[in-house]
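Quick one:
INPUT:
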């Protein structure tokens, strides 16, 4: 990370198998006590969400983390569900 331009854990490269090709039990790496109920606006409508701590938001417990540098043009973070409607995330 010494020569990195920025750090953002939103972009993640994930493996679901260990070095012996055994699948990880991802349920082992979550903490239900960290779940939150949040209010968000989608298309000007107030919606309630349950945000679960876990792989999808960087809150994995007991997870091995390795930082990976990606090309700047690949960096298109999704900070919330509304970002998925942006042109950059469309097929």
């Amino acid at each position: 990370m010494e020569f990195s331009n920025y750090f953002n854990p939103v972009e993640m490269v994930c493996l679901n198998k260990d070095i012996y090709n055994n699948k990880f039990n991802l349920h082992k790496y979550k903490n239900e006590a960290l779940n939150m109920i949040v209010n968000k606006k989608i298309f000007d409508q107030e919606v309630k969400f349950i945000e679960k701590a876990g792989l999808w938001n960087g809150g994995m417990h007991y997870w091995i983390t390795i930082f990976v540098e990606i090309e700047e043009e690949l960096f298109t973070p999704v900070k919330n569900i509304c970002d998925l409607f942006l042109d950059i995330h469309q097929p």
